[in-house]
Amino acid sequence: MTSLNELTLAEARDGLKAKDFSAGELARAHLAAMEKARGLNAYILETPERALAMAEVADTKIAAGEARPLEGIPLGIKDLFCTHGVVTTAGSKILEGFQPHYESAVTHNLWRDGAVMLGKLNLDEFAMGSSNETSAYGDVVSPWRRNKSDTKLVPGGSSGGSAAAVAAHLCLGATATDTGGSIRQPAALTGTVGIKPTYGRCSRWGTVAYASSLDQAGPIARTVRDCAILLGSMAGPDARDTTCADLPVPDFEAAVSRGVKGLTIGIPKEYRVDGMSAEIQALWDRGAEMLKDAGATVREISLPHTPYALPAYYIVAPAEASSNLARYDGVRYGLRVPGKDIAGMYENTRAAGFGREVKRRIMIGTYVLSAGYYDAYYVRAQKIRTLIKRDFEEAYASGIDAILTPATPSAAFGLGEKGSGDPVEMYLQDVFTITVNMAGLPGLSVPAGLDAQGLPLGLQLIGRPFDEETLFAAAQVIETAAGRTKLPAAWWA
């Protein structure tokens, strides 16, 4: 018999509705799994008392025939989403002990729909990283391992805790955020499904900011259907966020089974980067064949400004980060390290509270916004961003319905293997995902196979603005054809 924590979200929802088990039993199964898997360091904070209390309410609702869309479903929450009365750290010492007096819009929507909170998930500090090695609360370890190897692997980042917890069956789904690939890249490295919706589909209110014009919340789950179910609850208009679209939320779950017959899928030639591994190229080709076999037309397209996306992103994102993180000064909340005067307190607090990668990005951002360099760097990067967006608009205007690319340049790598001496090596992990954020488009990563070492590889689907439905339909075709990626063994238990 399948353990309760190994069910998909849809299976658990249907089982609760049929009263095959209770929400309390489902929550306890996940709490037990979390206890055994603490070596993965996926959770910064576990909230068992709150989970059981929320599950009790869910059981009452189910018994009364008043079940809500996510009634009794246990979720993990990336520790970038403010949760009322529960410590929220953004993976940083500078927010140590911070308990918000408000709830983020995304988590509020999940609790409104009956979900259960298991705890707060680990992440790269302030979502700055591609491997979950920059958290002040330690590295997250992937539940995956290479064939015949004990090397600990990264789960990707910044939503590494979310991806690892979902892959290891420590929650049925998780919230995540994506600024340059931080949902899609960890999903690809852990054999899970993750979608970054269109910028504005989910409210950013109450989510700790990294780069405000790029950040977007989305779900990570084990199947395409589960992701669709979660996004349906997370999304929606919010007057408190002026960038949040005032649009109705479609029935994403219904779109999953829609198929791709009659659709035209674009293959951008610029994504065939130098040094791309033969495995990634073969996976990409297989993905295109899967879509063709299901009735889609596949043709090559050009997105000519793609090569400039990575350098432009690493100007725009740090510039916005340097502005957003100026609020952490030791005055109102979080860490405070005294100094001889207020300037000294600012300096001491930030020196002690921010990690190395955060400091690096703040300094880069401050530099590109400084007098004499603003026009040379920041303004030029924003012009490139406009050209990247135009490339996508022209592709969609030519009849393309969605675009298929690799999600990552490689499978998961070992802890400490990249970026220790050269941060640019780590930044290159985002080479396939960054354009989507720069253009504000939806992007989805779906598992499509394993590499020669037995590690998962993902494909990325990029859609028109506010057309996540087509991505779910196409992703389901790939998931069905490739088969669901299953974790071989729980080596940590």
From TrEMBL:
Residues 26-471 form the Amidase domain. It is an enzyme of class 6 (ligase). PROSITE patterns: AMIDASES. Keywords: ATP-binding, Ligase, Nucleotide-binding, Protein biosynthesis. The active site is at K78 (charge relay system), S158 (charge relay system), S182 (acyl-ester intermediate). Pfam families: Amidase. InterPro entries: Amidase, Amidase_CS, Amidase_dom, AS_sf, GatA. Its EC number is 6.3.5.7. Gene3D superfamilies: Amidase signature (AS) domain (3.90.1300.10). It catalyses: L-glutamyl-tRNA(Gln) + L-glutamine + ATP + H2O = L-glutaminyl-tRNA(Gln) + L-glutamate + ADP + phosphate + H(+). Hydrolyzes indole-3-acetamide (IAM) into indole-3-acetic acid (IAA). Allows the formation of correctly charged Gln-tRNA(Gln) through the transamidation of misacylated Glu-tRNA(Gln) in organisms which lack glutaminyl-tRNA synthetase. The reaction takes place in the presence of glutamine and ATP through an activated gamma-phospho-Glu-tRNA(Gln). Belongs to the amidase family. GatA subfamily. Heterotrimer of A, B and C subunits. This is Glutamyl-tRNA(Gln) amidotransferase subunit A. The lineage of its organism: Bacteria, Pseudomonadati, Pseudomonadota, Alphaproteobacteria, Hyphomicrobiales.
